[in-house]
Amino acid sequence: MSDHMSSVQSCEDFSRERLQLNQHLEKMTEQMENASVKLSWMAYDMVVLRTSPDLAESLKCLENEFLKCKAVICGPTDGQDKKTHPASEEPNIPQEKS
């Protein structure tokens, strides 16, 4: 009777370990899939930037404009003084032609 109970217990332990292993493997597979997707997007971004140099320049211009807007809204950061604050400059807004 004791042998039967110990074999049932060991079978349950084995089943529990197998279930945990399967869950762990599924989690690892999902993490690898996520890493693969991120890597694919990085490769895509590199190809786009290398085949279209204008895009890199546009992104830099967009970043500069964002920093100007941020400075106007949030005020100057530690690296800026009042003289270089964009709010003190003349706004460069295109005028409509009549």
TrEMBL record:
Transmembrane segments: none annotated. The keyword Metal-binding does not apply. Residues 11-38 form a coiled coil. The lineage of its organism: Eukaryota, Metazoa, Chordata, Craniata, Vertebrata. Keywords: Coiled coil. This is Synaptonemal complex central element protein 3-like. InterPro entries: Synaptonemal_3 (IPR028145). One of its GO terms (biological process) is spermatogenesis. Residues 77-98 are annotated as: Disordered. Residues 79-88 have a biased composition (Basic and acidic residues). It comes from Carassius auratus.
